[in-house]
Design brief:
The structure holds two protein chains of two kinds. Chain A is an all-alpha fold. Helices cover 79% and strands 0% of the residues of chain A. Chain B has two domains: 82 residues, Carboxypeptidase-like, regulatory domain (Immunoglobulin-like), CATH 2.60.40.1120; 625 residues, Maltoporin, Chain A, CATH 2.40.170.20. Chain B is 6% helix and 58% strand. In chain B, the strands form eight sheets. Chain B has a 22-stranded antiparallel β-barrel. In chain B, strands 9-8-14-15-10-11 form a six-stranded mixed β-sheet, with no helix packed on it. A four-stranded antiparallel β-sheet of chain B has the order 3-2-5-6, with no helix packed on it. In chain B, a hairpin with a 7-residue loop joins strand 25 and strand 26. The N and C termini of chain B lie far apart (81 Å).
């Protein structure tokens, strides 16, 4: 009996490995999602390029694959971010076009409706950063997409993350600023704590939300609170490039200057 | 146990053999650009599989594929055209060199015809709605703000646009494809003072001062093309009040994002401001105006929109006028009505927009014997289409059918110098009808002659007036070269035709056989972007006029007039490191004409040789903004009165004029100041409070001269803003 059981077990394993080999799409999608997470924390152009490349390969087999469309849009959005920090405006515009095209392809996919509109709002927000003169038109569009994203899924924490960042970057005289953004970002943070884990669906933004809370605290001159926030982030993600190499050292320098003056 | 081991081994062998049973092909190679330089991060893969790799910094890649026989290899990278090639009968190894070709520059950013300023960055140097709202002294008026751009001559303080030596009728305003020939309030023979288009309804504006696209016909010098806002996404309301106006607006979604309306109402009342600034005695009836602008927007599909824009505007004014022969009151009323139904949709790569519009403008003028009613009715259908044939080619085309009927009824003085109520007069009852058919086609090409940075726009249009039997064919083109990512060079040429003022076609005192005026534009332009937010543009232009109307003893008017305008325009727009933003513009023009009643080929009324504008804004804090608008311009040419003859039977002096435009008024200068305070009430109602001081230095600019009865002495007449004027206002957004 034991022998039969063992034979069955080994054959089953063999069968499963064959299935996995012949249907590697889900594995690739998992890999893509992992790459986008790594790419964000390492702020790596190369990793996002790899993620994009894999998405394109999935789309060459099924152009309607919602996961590949989403992560290609998301990777392009991040590549757009990176291009902006490097001052490559034309490259940024090209990624914006790609990111918007693939996000828009998901508007009618129920499962992705909220995520697609949230991502579209984030992409347009980057375009706004590039061209402030379009503020009146683009901010309307951003709020429109966020409204649709929220209507599709009220618990999507990325809606409030993007809204909070938008508010942070809106001048105070138009109702924005750090003070207005912090409450929204904290709502997003609370939503993230309830967000179920998922192998394939988007879950990005949790640490980013805390980072923007820290930035808002810093802007409100709550330097010690901001430092605590940044340090707590590094406890979870010790290699988070933005905090580790930019935000925390700059904040510590600021605190030190204040202390020296005091 | 032995059995298990055997089975396990067999199973594993089976699994492994499952892989090895297929042929493996090793694919390797390099990816290069057209200049044979290696390209990194290129995604090279076998289509329909996950087999692939990304090229390294040397452009090299290698991977193994299990595809056999025929397969397609794809290589792609953003900014380059996709490589796609089929390979057949490959058995073990494939070595390939892939050359990626840089994508054609996106056509929108490659070249724009004409000298353009737009709220869409792709179309040219940016003039945003915010610029219109915050230009000091601009009164948030689109025309007054655009006048601060180079190429528009500061001939007067009216809202009319004198573009590069052209008469104001040579510039036409379009709103969602509809033509509006009189978009002004307080229109008199000296032009209108403000726009009756509410700035809040403007989504995009595109202004061009020459060399423009073939899509615009029957216009000689400039185009202001306005696209109105879309349907609202969320509800918002605004209340504004100032010493000169009261406004209400609402943006209301009616059914999700599928149907919505935008409503803007404005009532001006200038009495308080005139009283405060001491100008009340100049008016018999202080100028008042009201306008209601509304749009209803329906999004009937993912790509299709129908928009109905309506405008109702009216104004009246009564101003004291002192002339040599008569002192009285000028009474003026005008009205404007617009209905425009526009439909837009996208079908694959084809974008179509159609507009059916009706615009009615009425004007009544009374001064002494002058008693004139003017009606201008325009019914128009316009259709425009554009199709992107490929990344290199974009084709535009369209047609227009426009029926314009103008009527002039009433009494006009028989002699220009006698407007007294008892003066001789001519009775006018003239109706001029013009039916125009127009069509155009235009092609945009990127990468011409295989040069990636060279682009061309070439178009041709034709217009035909059925009743006048006048037609023309106008070719236009522009060629642009992208010197670098930040710098562009452009040359444009085009022929332009426009019918002269309708009144000249009157059978009574005009010539129904007049031809169209012809202009040739030559424009050389250089654009440079410095950093993210600073631009410089320099332009040299030459405009040649032919067939201008000229007074003629036999036929009243002939087409023997001619002229030219040569000039240089410069604009520097941007933000300094200390946060001061704005723009500096300079225009030089030399323009001469022989037309209308000119006695010789001489400088025209629009020859403002030098003109400089400086507009700056600075945020003192997050809640306070201060701005100035300084203008200085050469004085306007005018024809001096050098003497007078007494006409005994009329008991009046007839002025003797000197040489046409042989004198100039004093240099025009004006400094406007604006202080704006932004705030929030109760944490949610955005408020804006502002104080604007127009002509803060109280510089006595000239509007003209008024003469003594015998023309032996003259007195200066102040311009509209010839006295310091303070305006305080606020708005609340809910």
């Amino acid at each position: 009996m034991k022998t039969i059981f063992n034979i069955t077990f080994v054959l089953l394993l063999t069968f499963l490995s064959c299935i996995a080999k012949d249907n590697p799409k889900s594995g690739t999608l998992v890999k893509i999602k992992q790459l986008t997470e790594e790419g964000y924390f390492e702020w790596s152009h190369e990793i996002f390029m790899k993620a994009s490349a894999l998405c394109q390969r999935v789309l060459s087999m099924d152009e309607n694959d919602p996961y590949a469309n989403y992560y290609l849009s998301y990777s392009s959005y991040r590549l757009m971010n990176i291009a902006m920090t490097e001052g490559k405006k034309e490259e940024m515009q090209k990624y914006a076009g790609l990111a918007k095209g693939h996000a828009a392809a998901l508007y009618e996919v129920d499962k992705f409706k909220s995520e697609a509109h949230t991502l579209m709002a984030a992409i347009i927000m980057m375009e706004l950063a590039l061209d402030h003169s379009q503020g009146m038109v683009l901010s309307q569009k951003i709020h429109g997409h966020l409204g649709k994203a929220e209507a599709a899924d009220k618990s999507n924490p990325r809606v409030n993350l993007v809204r909070g960042v938008m508010m942070f970057n809106t001048p105070e005289q138009f109702g924005g600023g750090a003070n207005s953004s912090i409450g929204i970002l904290k709502t997003a943070d609370a939503q993230f704590s309830k967000q179920p884990d998922s192998e394939l669906m988007p879950t990005w933004g949790k640490v980013e939300t805390k980072t923007w809370i820290g930035l808002a605290q810093q802007k409100l001159s709550k330097f010690e609170e901001a430092k605590e926030t940044f340090e707590s982030i590094l406890e979870i993600k010790p290699d988070y490039d933005w905090i580790k190499h930019d935000l925390l050292p700059a904040l510590e320098k600021k605190i030190s200057q204040i202390n020296n003056q005091g | 146990m032995k059995l298990i081991l055997i089975i396990t081994t067999v199973s594993l062998l089976l699994t492994v053999s499952g892989i090895n049973a297929k042929d493996k092909i090793s694919v390797s190679g390099r990816v290069l650009n057209e200049g044979k330089k290696p390209l990194a991060f290129v995604n090279v893969f076998v289509e329909g599989t996950f087999d692939g790799a990304m090229s390294n910094v040397k452009g090299e890649f290698s991977f193994v594929t299990h595809s056999t026989g025929t397969f397609i290899i794809t290589a792609s990278m953003i900014g380059y055209e996709k490589y796609r090639k089929e390979f057949r009968n490959i058995t073990s190894q494939l070595q390939i060199e892939i050359v990626l070709i840089e994508e054609a520059i996106e056509l929108e950013s490659a070249i724009v015809m004409g000298s353009s300023y737009s709220s869409e960055k792709a179309k040219g140097l940016v003039v945003s709605q915010v610029d219109v709202y915050t230009t000091p002294g601009g009164a948030a008026d689109v025309f007054q703000s655009i006048k601060a751009l180079p190429g528009i001559t500061q001939v007067s303080e009216s809202a009319e646009l004198y573009v590069r030596g052209g008469d104001p009728i040579e510039t036409v305003t379009f709103v969602d494809q509809a033509s509006i020939y009189h978009p002004f309030t307080y229109e008199s023979s000296y032009g209108g003072l403000f726009s009756n288009l509410n700035t809040a309804i403007i989504k995009n504006l595109y202004f061009t001062s020459g060399g423009f696209s073939a899509m615009y016909g029957n216009v000689l010098s400039g185009v202001l093309d306005i696209e109105t806002i879309d349907g609202p996404i969320s509800s918002s309301y605004n209340v504004g009040i100032s010493m000169a106006a009261f406004s209400l607006s609402g943006r209301i979604p009616i059914y999700n994002d599928k149907l919505g309306m935008n409503v803007f109402a404005n009532q001006s009342y200038t009495r308080p401001i005139m009283w405060l600034n001491g100008d009340l005695d100049q008016f018999t009836s202080t100028p008042t105006s009201r306008d209601l602008t509304a749009s209803f927007v329906s999004k009937y599909s993912q790509t299709g929109t129908v928009k109905l824009v309506t405008l109702f505007a009216e104004d009246r004014q009564g101003a004291k006028v002192e002339r040599a022969e008569y002192t009285g009151a000028f009474e003026g009323n005008s009205g404007n009505t617009l209905f425009n139904l526009q439909q837009k949709d996208v079908f694959g790569k084809l974008f179509i927009k159609n507009s059916l519009s009706y615009n009615r403008h009425t004007n009544e003028w009374n001064l002494g014997i002058l008693d004139l009613d003017i009606n201008d009715n325009v019914l128009k259908f316009r259709s425009d289409a554009e199709i992107r044939l490929s990344k290199k080619y974009k084709l535009f085309g369209g047609f227009v059918i426009e029926n314009r009927e103008e009527t002039y009824k009433g009494l006009i003085p028989a002699e220009d110098f006698d407007i007294r109520p008892e003066a001789g007069f001519d009775k006018l009852d003239v109706s001029i009808n013009r039916l125009r058919y127009g069509a155009y086609v235009e092609l945009e090409v990127a990468n011409i002659f295989g040069m990636n940075k060279l682009s061309l726009i070439s178009g041709i249009r034709s217009d035909y007036f059925t009743d006048l039997d006048i037609n023309w064919v106008d070719p236009r083109f522009a060629i642009g070269y992208k010197l670098s990512e930040k710098a562009n060079f452009k040359f444009g040429f085009g022929l332009f035709h426009q019918l002269p003022d309708s009144r000249l076609y009157s059978e009574l005192d005009g010539n129904p056989d007049l031809k169209a005026i012809k202009a040739s534009h030559y424009i050389l332009s250089y654009d440079l972007q410095i950093g993210e937010r600073n631009n410089i543009r320099m332009e040299l232009y030459h405009k040649k006029y032919k067939d201008l109307p000229l007074e003629d003893d036999q036929v009243n008017y002939s087409n023997k007039g001619y002229g030219f305008a040569n000039g240089f325009d410069l604009i520097i727009k941007g933000t300094l490191p200390n946060g001061i933003s704005g723009w500096l513009s300079y225009g030089f023009i030399n323009t001469k004409r022989k037309w209308m009643d000119y006695d010789s080929f001489t400088r025209s009324d629009f020859d403002i040789t030098h003109q400089l504008s400086l507009i700056t804004k600075y945020n003192l804090s997050s809640m306070w903004q201060v701005g100035i608008n300084y203008k200085i311009a050469s004085g306007r040419p005018h024809t001096p009165v050098v003497g007078a003859n007494y006409i005994e039977q009329l008991s009046i002096y007839e002025p003797i004029e000197g040489r046409t435009n042989s004198a100039r008024y004093q240099t025009y200068q004006r400094l406007d100041f604006r202080l704006t305070h932004f705030n929030q009430l109760f944490g949610k109602y955005n408020t804006i409070v502002y104080m604007e001081a127009l002509n803060i230095l109280n510089i006595k600019n000239l509007f003209g001269y008024t003469y003594s009865e015998d023309y032996s002495s003259r007195r200066k007449v102040k311009s509209y803003f010839g006295r310091r004027t303070i305006v305080i206002g606020m708005s609340i957004s809910i």
